[in-house]
Design brief:
Layout (H helix, E strand, L loop, with lengths): L8 H15 L8 H28 L2 E6 L2 E6 L1 H23 L13 H7 L4
Antiparallel strand pairs: 1-2
Helix pairs in contact: 1-2, 2-3
Length: about 120
Amino acid sequence: MARKRELTKDEKIDKEVKRLKEIYKEIDQRKTKTLDGLIQECAFMRITLEELRKNINETGVIDEMPQGDYTILRESPYVKTYHTMIQRYTTANEKLLGLLPKETKVTTTNDDFDDFVEGREDV
């Protein structure tokens, strides 16, 4: 059975860009310059976060750093980078979500029928 080729980082980013552009295709043309930059950055950060998560799962959250005759336990550099990037990714996604058109709520008018039915004693 043929094994599926793993995508390169750039291919994964391009795939994520296409996915995001499909979601935001109905956006006002005046916002597209901002949108394109945010989409590129969000796609890059999402793929990079996946790689960092994979590295953290493989190496753990604690790193041993040799110091002459002894070693120091410290937070893994992958974890530090992940924490910083996830915050920026969240902020960028909030900006993207802010560009989506606001959903309008459908309000139903009260024609007093429900009040009438609930107020009846024979029901």
